[in-house]
Design a protein that fits this description.
This protein has 399 residues and is of the alpha/beta class. The chain contains ten helices and nine strands. The chain has helices at 2-37, 58-64, 68-88, 146-153, 193-200, 226-235, 296-305, 316-319, 327-330, 359-389, and strands at residues 135-141, 160-166, 184-187, 211-215, 219-220, 240-245, 264-265, 293-295, 331-341. Helix 1 (2-37) runs parallel beside helix 3.
Length: 399
C-alpha cells in the first residue's frame, strides 16, 4: 500500500517542479519582453484591457491551476495590444519644401498668402465676396486732405481695394464718406507711406492684386481714369509706372513731365551731363516716389529693397530699375492719364522743432541723410556680392 502513495507523492513533486520551471521560464520571457519594449513601463499605467493585468498574477495562476497554454495566450494578447499601439502612433510630418516655420504641417493646409478682402461674420465663406478687386490703391493721409482724397478715391472703380494710412491718427472723421466703410484704414501717428508699405504690404499679403498704387495725398486726379490707366500699362508692358505730371506744377524731373503727343514715354533728355547712359535714371528706367504703380512681380522685388529704418524713400526711385529687366523698357510714364502734383508739405508739419529749427527742416534733413545712407548700403551690398562671386563689379578698371 505504501508504494502507490510514494509514487503519487513523487509524481506530485515532479509536476510541481515542472510547473515552477515553466512558470519561471515564462516569467523571465515576459519580463524580458516588457523590458525591451518599455524600459520604464509601469503595468498600472499601461493602457491594457482591465481584465488583463489580474490574469497574469502568478500566485493566482498557481491557485487556479492555470495551464501554460493559457499563460501563452495572455502573452500573445499583450504582444498584439502593444503592437497595435505602435501601429496607431501618428507619424511625424516634416516637409522641407513648405514655407519656413510650416515644415510640420501637411502641404494641403498651408496658406502662405493672404489678402485685404474684408469678410462677413456670418454665412458661408465661399459666398463672402461678390467681387474680388484686382488692384490695390493706397494713400497716406491726414484729415486736412480729406476732400482731396474723397475726390481721388472716386476715380477708382470697384475693381480697386482702397487702403488709407493715417499718419495723424484720425480715422473716425472719415466715416461720413460713403466709400470709407469699404476701405481699409491703418493708423499709426507720424509715419510715412514707405514705413506703412514695408509693414502692411508684404508681397504675400497683396498677392491677389495685379497692380499696387502707392500714392501721396496731394495729387489732383481730375484728368485721371484708373481703368484706362491700367489698360495702357498692360498695353505697353510696364511693370513700374506713374501718370504724367502736369508740366506747370510740382515738377522736379523732365522724365516725369507729361507729354501731349504720346500715350507713354520711357526716356527723356535731362540737363547736360546728368545722364551718362541714356538707359539709366534720370533719363530712363525712372519714375518718382510720389505716385508709383507696381506690378505684382515688380513689387515683390521692391518690397525687399525697401530698408526697414529708412522711411522717406529718398533714393529708392533711382534704384527701382534693379527690379525689372530690361528696365528702360518696363519702366515708363503714362502721358494719356495725367495728374497734378499739388506739393502740399504735409509731412513737414509732423516733425519736431529741435535746436531752433522748424519741424519741416528736421524732416527735410533726414530725407537727404536717408538718400546718402541708401546709396551707401546699395554700393556696399553690390561690392560684397561681386567679391563673394569672384567677379569684377561693373565699370571696374580691373580686367
Amino acid at each position: 500500500m505504501g508504494t502507490p502513495m510514494k509514487r503519487s507523492s513523487n509524481s506530485r513533486r515532479r509536476n510541481e517542479k515542472m510547473r515552477l520551471f515553466v512558470t519561471t521560464f515564462i516569467g523571465v520571457v515576459f519580463g524580458f519582453f516588457l523590458g525591451v519594449t518599455f524600459p520604464t513601463i509601469s503595468l498600472s499605467k499601461l493602457p491594457l484591457p482591465t481584465n488583463l493585468i489580474p490574469s497574469i498574477d502568478l500566485p493566482d495562476m498557481e491557485k487556479s491551476g492555470l495551464s501554460t497554454q493559457a499563460l501563452l495566450n495572455v502573452l500573445s494578447s499583450l504582444k498584439d495590444h502593444v503592437g497595435s499601439l505602435h501601429k496607431n502612433k501618428t507619424p511625424k510630418i516634416w516637409v522641407p519644401s513648405n514655407p519656413r516655420g510650416a515644415e510640420r504641417l501637411p502641404p494641403g493646409i498651408v496658406a502662405s498668402e493672404s489678402d485685404l478682402y474684408t469678410r462677413r461674420l456670418w454665412g458661408l465663406p465661399s459666398e463672402d465676396l461678390i467681387i474680388k478687386p484686382r488692384y490695390l490703391v493706397t494713400f497716406t493721409v491726414g484729415l486736412k486732405q480729406k476732400s482731396n482724397i474723397d475726390a481721388a478715391v472716386k476715380k477708382f472703380s470697384e475693381n480697386f481695394t482702397i487702403m488709407l494710412f493715417h499718419y495723424d491718427g484720425r480715422t473716425t472723421e472719415w466715416d461720413d464718406l460713403e466709400w470709407s466703410a469699404r476701405a481699409i484704414h491703418v493708423s499709426t501717428p507720424k509715419q510715412t507711406k514707405w514705413w506703412y508699405a514695408k509693414r502692411f504690404l508684404h508681397p504675400d499679403i497683396v498677392a491677389p492684386y495685379d497692380y499696387i498704387f502707392i500714392w501721396d495725398e496731394d495729387l489732383g486726379l481730375e484728368n485721371f481714369n484708373a481703368e484706362e490707366y491700367i489698360k495702357l500699362v498692360m498695353k505697353h508692358g510696364l511693370d513700374i509706372s506713374q501718370p504724367g505730371l502736369e508740366p506747370n506744377s510740382g515738377l522736379t524731373w523732365q522724365m516725369t513731365k507729361g507729354r501731349n503727343d504720346t500715350e507713354v514715354h520711357k526716356e527723356t533728355e535731362e540737363r547736360p551731363g546728368w545722364c551718362a547712359d541714356p538707359h539709366l535714371p534720370p533719363c530712363a528706367a525712372f519714375v518718382e516716389i510720389m505716385a508709383p504703380v507696381f506690378s505684382r512681380e515688380a513689387w515683390r522685388c521692391v518690397w525687399h529693397m525697401i530698408q526697414n529704418d529708412l522711411v522717406h524713400g529718398w533714393g529708392l526711385d533711382f534704384a527701382l530699375r534693379r527690379c525689372v529687366e530690361p528696365a528702360h523698357e518696363k519702366i515708363g510714364v503714362v502721358d494719356a492719364q495725367w495728374i497734378v502734383h499739388q506739393t502740399v508739405p504735409s509731412l513737414g508739419s509732423q516733425g519736431k522743432s529741435e535746436n531752433g529749427k522748424a519741424p519741416w527742416e528736421g524732416v527735410r534733413e533726414r530725407c537727404r541723410r536717408e538718400w546718402t545712407m541708401f546709396q551707401d548700403r546699395m554700393a556696399t551690398a553690390e561690392m560684397a556680392y561681386y567679391k563673394a562671386m569672384g567677379m569684377d563689379p561693373p565699370n571696374s578698371t580691373t580686367n
